[in-house]
Amino acid sequence: MNQSPQLPIAIIGAGPVGLAAAAHLISYGQPFVLFEAGEAVGANIKTWEHIRLFSPWRYNMDKKSVELLKRQGWQEPDLEALPTGRELVDDYLIPLSETVEIKPHLELNAKVLSISKKDRDKMKTAGRDEVPFVLYVERDGEVSKVEAQAVIDATGTWGNPNPANSDGVWLSGERHANERSFYGMPDVTGKHRERYSGKNVAVVGSGHSAINALLELATLKEAYPETGIVWIIRKKSVSEAYGGEEKDALAARGELGSRIHRLVDSGIVQVYEGFKIEQVMSAENGTLIIKNATTEIKGVDEMIVNTGNRPDRTIFSELRTAIDEATESVKALAPLIDPNVHSCGTVRPHGEKELSQPEKNFYIVGAKSYGRAPTFLMATGYEQVRSVVAHISQDEEAASKVELELPETGVCSVTFSKPATTSSSCSASTSCSASTSCS
């Protein structure tokens, strides 16, 4: 590297991939600082802590991180058990963040607002690779500058959702409906129970997160029969959302499709197929109206939107980057991860070579590297940072040897022997580690 060796490597985002990057930097003896905008590590995961992952512990933990934890007496969980989001944070991420090697270098409530090169805006080329990065970090309302020799952006895409609008554009009507809309995975049968009990609820989206919300609403309806459930999908036929059902190579995933199939057939869930939302607006009585070109769905009390997420690129707008215009992913990754072509399992392993940017020593990793593509695997994120950190540490042999260990049949599954308040979902931004589609 050309910058001063005493400068740290800045990691942005203390989720699973960001913390894994820290563990790998520690293994090479590299200085680092880890910025987390939230008040605790895994802040985004905590918003869906009630969800049970489809993949077992063994595919949700980074090897170097586990080595670091074990040296400090940490007890490894049952590798075949399926953790909830809360368990992932409490039993893995928090202990990892509190190791003596990471804790002194972790800053919470530290939001990176922007990244630039020292004394050079995006237009200036001369000497660009020789000067450090400058991160503008907000702490307690005050903004200060931190210099770094390299930057690893592991901020993910969670919390920056796509709109319900099928054109992908946020309109004022949908924004004004914010109080009656939930973007993500609400705890329908838990802490959000009162919000949805006895209400007319519209779920938008056809992936596993949407199906999970529908199944929870059906459970809620058993206790509150007046609860209405509407499912709005862009697919031409709802059968496309059921998957392989009993023919699915993964029986549990097939059961998920069968359960929603039965709910639709029973009439408990009312489906609007091929419904491309053009507008969401508030009625005079405060309920929502959801419109397409020919139809209005009226009397909606609450809307749950599961239409995916998109990356926020504003923090590196002053850096030179190569981003694919369609997927909004790292450009070299686009043909490997395009959801029009690939599922999780057909994405090939990739590392520093594919993740490198025109701005030397700046890397976008984890779910954010995939942009809008919903095929990200947590295990892939761990392999990304292993390769990137090896390159930063001038271990080119390790950086170029990119491998991804996944079982041949995949690991996306769901358990139904769980408490009523614990849900199951295959969240592409978390740990959909399987040879399956997780969109």
Residue fraction in strands: 15-25%
Mean pLDDT across all amino acids: 88
Low-pLDDT ranges: 248-252, 407-439
- State the end-to-end distance: 38 Å
Helix and strand string, N-terminal first?
EHEHEHHEEEEEHEHEHEHEEEEEHHEHHE
Identify the overall geometry. globular
Number of helices: 12
Largest sheet: 5 strands, parallel
**Which class do the helix and strand fractions yield?**
alpha/beta
Approximately how much helix is present in the residues? 10-25%
Which sequence of strands runs across the widest sheet?
Answer: 4-2-1-8-17
- Total strand segments: 18
Integer-rounded radius of gyration? 22 Å
Structure description:
The model is unreliable at 248-252 and 407-439 (pLDDT under 50). The chain contains 12 helices and 18 strands. The protein has helices at 16-27, 43-46, 63-70, 85-97, 172-176, 193-196, 208-223, 251-266, 334-337, 352-355, 378-392, 396-400; strands spanning 9-12, 32-35, 51-52, 106-107, 110-117, 133-139, 142-148, 150-153, 181-183, 200-204, 228-232, 269-272, 279-282, 288-291, 296-300, 302-305, 362-364, 423-424. A 5-stranded parallel sheet has the order 4-2-1-8-17, with helices on one face. The protein has a 5-stranded parallel sheet with strand order 9-16-10-11-12. A 3-stranded antiparallel sheet has the order 5-6-7, with no helix packed on it. A hairpin with a 4-residue loop joins strand 14 (288-291) and strand 15 (296-300). Helix 1 runs parallel beside helix 11. The chain is α/β, with parallel strands linked by helices.
